[in-house]
C-alpha cells in the first residue's frame, strides 16, 4: 500500500514539473534584417585611351651615373676626374643624346636605345674629336649635327638602323664606321670634301651597283682602307683612289674583274674577294700581278685554275674553289733552272698557300716546292 502511494506521488510531481517547463516563454526568433534598398546601377566611364608608346615598354629605365665633381656632367653619364675631356654615357639605356659639355673631346654613347640624333645636345660641343654611337637604334641624324662639331675626326655608328650615309659629314673626318646598318643609298657628294678620310667601313649593308655613283670614292685621296664586304655588289666599285692599301669586297655577287682594274695602284697590299661568283672567265690571267700586293683572298669562288700573281705576294687563299690541278712551272715567275731562284732578293715571297676544299689531293707537286722556297705552310 505504501509502495502504491509513493508511485502515485512521484507521478504527480513529474506532471507538475512538465507543466512548469511548458509554461516558460520560448525565445523569440531574431527579426530578419530589412532588405537593402536597391541603388541605381551605373557603369563607370572607361578611362581615356592613351596613345601607344613610341618605343617598346619593356625598355629598362635609364641608369643614373655616380655624383660628379663637374657641375655640367649629365646625371646619366660618368665624368672621370682623371680624364676630364671624356664623357662616358655607354650602357645607360638612354633614349636621347644628353647635353654635351663644351670641354668634352671623347664621347661614348654606344649600347643604348637612341633612335634619333638631334642638333641641340651638340650646341656647345665644338671640341669633339671622337664620337662612338655604335649599337643603338639610330634611324635619323639631323643635318645640323655635324655643323656643330667641325673638328670631329672619328665617327663610329655601326650596328644602327641607318638607310643612307648621313649628310654634311665633317670634312676633317679620318675614320667613318657605318657597318651593320641598312644603308642602300650614298647621297651624291657625300664624301666629296673628305680629303683626310683614311678608313671607310660600309660592310654588311644593302649597297648595290646602282647605289654608288662613278665618282662616289674619287675624292678620298688619303683613303687607306675601304670595306664594302657583305653587300649586294655585282661589279667592282669604280674610281677607287689609287693610293688605297686595303680593299675588302667579301660576300658580294661579283663575277667579273676588269683587266686593268688594279693598274696604277701604288700601295695596294690586301685584297679580299672571298664568297663571290668569280670564275676563270671573269678573272683575267694577270689581273693580280701587282707588285705591292702581299695578301690575296679568293676563297669560296668558282675558280678552276690558279691565277697568276706577282713574286712579292706572301699569302694566297684559294680554298673552296673547283681547282683540279696546280702547275708550279706555269705559276713560277722564273724558269726552275734560273739563277734567280737562288738569289734571295729575287726569290718568290709566297709563304702561305691554302688550297683545301678543292679537287686536289696530296702530295704538292715538286715544281711548286722548288719555285716557292719561302713557303712555310701549304694547306691541301
Could you characterize what this model shows?
- There is one protein chain.
- This protein is mostly loops and 380 residues long.
- The protein is 8% helix and 11% strand.
- It contains three helices and 15 strands.
- Residues 1-5, 10-16 and 18-25 have low confidence and may be disordered.
- Could you state the order of secondary-structure elements as H and E? HEEEEEEEEEEEEEHEHE
Largest sheet: 13 strands, parallel
* Silhouette: elongated
- Which runs of at least 5 residues are low in confidence (pLDDT < 50)? 1-5, 10-16, 18-25
Number of DSSP helical runs: 3
Class based on secondary structure composition and strand pairing: little secondary structure
- Strand order across the biggest sheet? 1-2-4-6-7-8-9-10-11-12-13-14-15
**What is the first-to-last residue Cα distance?**
139 Å
Average predicted local confidence, pLDDT: 87
Helix content: under 10%
- Radius of gyration, in Å, reads 42 Å
Write the layout of secondary structure elements.
Elements: H1 2-23, E1 86-88, E2 106-108, E3 116-117, E4 130-132, E5 140-141, E6 154-156, E7 175-177, E8 199-201, E9 225-227, E10 246-248, E11 270-272, E12 295-297, E13 315-317, H2 328-331, E14 352-354, H3 366-371, E15 377-379
Parallel strand pairs: 1-2, 2-4, 3-5, 4-6, 6-7, 7-8, 8-9, 9-10, 10-11, 11-12, 12-13, 13-14, 14-15
Amino acid at each position: 500500500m505504501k509502495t502504491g502511494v509513493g508511485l502515485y506521488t512521484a507521478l504527480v510531481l513529474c506532471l507538475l514539473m512538465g507543466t512548469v517547463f511548458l509554461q516558460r516563454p520560448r525565445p523569440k526568433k531574431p527579426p530578419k534584417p530589412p532588405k537593402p534598398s536597391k541603388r541605381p546601377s551605373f557603369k563607370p566611364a572607361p578611362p581615356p585611351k592613351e596613345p601607344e608608346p613610341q618605343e617598346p615598354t619593356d625598355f629598362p629605365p635609364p641608369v643614373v651615373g655616380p655624383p660628379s665633381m663637374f657641375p655640367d656632367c649629365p646625371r646619366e653619364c660618368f665624368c672621370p676626374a682623371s680624364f676630364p675631356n671624356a664623357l662616358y654615357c655607354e650602357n645607360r639605356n638612354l633614349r636621347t643624346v644628353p647635353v654635351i659639355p663644351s670641354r668634352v673631346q671623347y664621347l661614348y654613347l654606344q649600347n643604348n636605345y637612341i633612335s634619333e640624333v638631334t642638333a641641340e645636345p651638340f650646341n656647345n660641343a665644338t671640341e669633339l674629336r671622337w664620337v662612338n654611337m655604335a649599337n643603338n637604334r639610330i634611324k635619323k641624324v639631323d643635318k645640323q649635327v655635324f655643323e656643330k662639331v667641325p673638328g670631329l675626326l672619328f665617327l663610329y655608328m655601326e650596328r644602327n638602323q641607318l638607310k643612307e650615309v648621313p649628310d654634311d659629314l665633317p670634312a676633317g673626318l679620318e675614320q667613318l664606321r657605318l657597318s651593320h646598318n641598312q644603308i642602300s643609298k650614298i647621297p651624291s657628294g657625300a664624301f666629296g670634301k673628305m680629303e683626310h678620310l683614311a678608313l671607310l667601313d660600309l660592310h654588311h649593308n644593302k649597297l648595290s651597283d646602282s647605289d654608288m655613283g662613278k665618282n662616289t670614292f674619287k675624292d678620298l685621296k688619303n683613303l687607306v682602307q675601304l670595306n664594302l664586304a657583305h653587300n649586294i655588289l655585282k661589279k667592282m666599285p669604280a674610281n677607287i683612289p689609287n693610293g688605297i692599301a686595303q680593299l675588302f669586297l667579301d660576300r658580294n655577287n661579283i663575277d667579273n674583274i676588269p683587266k686593268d682594274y688594279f693598274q696604277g695602284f701604288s700601295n695596294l697590299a690586301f685584297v679580299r674577294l672571298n664568297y663571290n661568283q668569280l670564275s676563270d672567265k671573269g678573272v683575267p690571267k694577270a689581273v693580280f700581278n701587282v707588285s705591292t700586293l702581299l695578301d690575296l683572298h679568293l676563297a669560296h669562288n668558282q675558280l678552276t685554275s690558279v691565277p697568276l700573281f706577282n713574286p712579292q705576294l706572301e699569302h694566297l687563299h684559294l680554298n673552296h674553289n673547283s681547282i683540279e690541278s696546280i702547275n708550279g712551272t706555269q705559276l713560277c715567275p722564273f724558269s726552275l733552272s734560273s739563277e734567280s731562284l737562288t738569289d734571295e732578293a729575287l726569290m718568290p715571297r709566297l709563304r702561305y698557300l691554302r688550297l683545301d676544299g678543292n679537287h686536289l689531293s696530296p702530295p704538292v707537286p715538286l715544281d711548286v716546292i722548288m719555285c716557292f722556297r719561302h713557303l712555310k705552310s701549304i694547306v691541301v
